[in-house]
Design a protein that fits this description.
Elements: E1 3-7, H1 15-23, E2 27-31, H2 37-43, E3 48-51, E4 65-66, H3 68-73, E5 78-82, E6 85-89, H4 91-102, E7 111-115, H5 119-130, E8 135-139, E9 158-161
Parallel strand pairs: 1-2, 1-3, 4-6, 7-8, 7-9
Antiparallel strand pairs: 3-5, 5-6
């Protein structure tokens, strides 16, 4: 295998169709149970993989080097195998950052709320803070800031849906 998507349940994924169409290469779905991750990474039988739920944090221990962004966020979604060394990246950070800039959204000195508290939320919060948001509040189902009391954040100028 050269390229693919690593996750636990992937039957819903359109990734093989998208990669085959736009990239003109074979892209496989790699469904693994947690107990099979170590063996998969010992074999290093791939050139590059994307990583999705629930393994974005779990794969870190198998990588030889993390990019500064992946290290900062504590999550990986892309791993490149260069001569048996595994290099980990978080491209979600750059994707969200690009989207904010392309849409010409100025977050500097603005309050932002991020809906959701999963992996995408962590990445969005990091980008918003790095772009100068003065406050970033995560809204989740439970906790101090939740959907039942979201009204106390009506002063937010930016809302990000990371659900």
């Amino acid at each position: 295998m050269e390229f693919g998507l690593l996750g636990r349940k992937l039957s819903h994924s359109y990734s093989p169709k998208i990669h085959t169409f736009f990239g003109n290469y074979k892209y496989e779905l790699i469904e693994k149970e947690p107990e099979n991750l170590a063996e998969f990474f010992e074999n290093k039988d791939f050139l590059g993989i994307n990583v999705t739920i629930p393994y974005k944090k779990d794969v870190i221990k198998y990588c030889d080097e993390l990019s500064p962004i992946a290290s900062k966020i504590g999550a990986v979604n892309t791993i490149v195998n260069k001569n048996g060394k595994l290099y980990a990246h978080n491209t979600d950070y750059f994707g969200f950052s690009y989207m904010i800039k392309k849409a010409e959204i100025d977050v500097k000195n603005k309050k932002a709320i991020v809906l959701g508290s999963g992996g995408a939320s962590v990445t969005c919060c990091a980008v918003l803070k790095d772009l100068g948001a003065c406050e970033v509040v995560v809204i989740s189902r439970k906790g101090e800031n939740n959907y039942n009391n979201i009204g106390k954040h009506f002063d937010a100028e930016i809302i990000v849906n990371a659900i």
